[in-house]
Automatic annotation (TrEMBL):
CDD domains: Sigma70_r4. Residues 28-93 form the RNA polymerase sigma-70 region domain. SUPFAM superfamilies: Sigma2 domain of RNA polymerase sigma factors, Sigma3 and sigma4 domains of RNA polymerase sigma factors. NCBIfam families: Sig70_bacteroi1, sigma70-ECF. This is RNA polymerase sigma-70 factor. Keywords: Sigma factor, Transcription, Transcription regulation. Residues 125-177 form the RNA polymerase sigma factor 70 region 4 type domain.
Length: 202
């Protein structure tokens, strides 16, 4: 067991300011799980929660030389997490609003060229393939939403679940698809999601 394990917060902060990597590692290990659980309770996504917590520690390490918290280290990390979660939530809302805007714009188009139709078919095949890898209930909800165009309430009534559960399944599916297509350009992936939203299945 490292000697740092027994150090107080003040001792760890002092070593951290000197660039001590072992002190930073101890802080990371001591508070990671607590922060990740707190972030998950707010974001309901383990992947998003871990990204937010990682951002908290990156910020801490970046400003380590000038780090003089007004309260305890734990209180500082919790406050930092709170603001990172708010930023993540805002980004998520902006992301979905942008999707809605793209959907509306696409719906205004009266026709498409043969080349565009081929691209649409290819994109749809890729998204369908990725969709079938989702857990059964998540896949069912996502297909009802994006392919059958049902509202969240209609999906909840059909599947015997709550609207909040439906939203969680859709969010999980979108996150999974974002991960699947993470090597593509962001705008290309947005197009994929928009097409899934507005085009009926084969």
């Amino acid at each position: 067991m490292s000697a740092y394990h027994s150090y107080s917060e003040d001792q760890l902060i002092a070593f951290l300011r000197m660039g001590d990597h072992a002190a930073f590692t101890e802080i990371y290990n001591r508070y990671w799980e607590m922060l990740a659980d707190a972030a998950y309770q707010r974001l309901r996504s383990r992947e998003d929660a871990e990204e937010v917590v990682q951002s908290v520690f990156v910020s801490l390490y970046t400003r380590r030389q000038d780090f003089f918290p007004k309260s305890t280290l734990e209180a500082y990390l919790k406050a930092s997490l709170k603001y990172k979660v708010i930023d993540a939530y805002r980004s998520q809302q902006l992301y979905y609003r942008h999707l809605d805007g793209l959907i509306a714009e696409h719906n205004l188009r009266s026709s498409s060229t043969p080349h565009e139709q081929v691209e649409v078919k290819q994109i749809k095949e890729q998204v369908l393939l990725a969709t079938h890898k989702l857990p059964d209930k998540c896949k069912e909800v996502f297909i009802l939403s994006r392919f059958e165009q049902l509202s969240n309430q209609e999906i909840a009534d059909r599947t015997g679940t709550s609207v909040s559960t439906v939203k969680k399944h859709i969010h999980k599916a979108l996150l999974t698809l974002r991960t699947t297509f993470k090597n593509n350009l962001f705008n290309l992936f947005l197009i994929k999601i928009v097409l899934v939203k507005i085009i009926s299945p084969f």
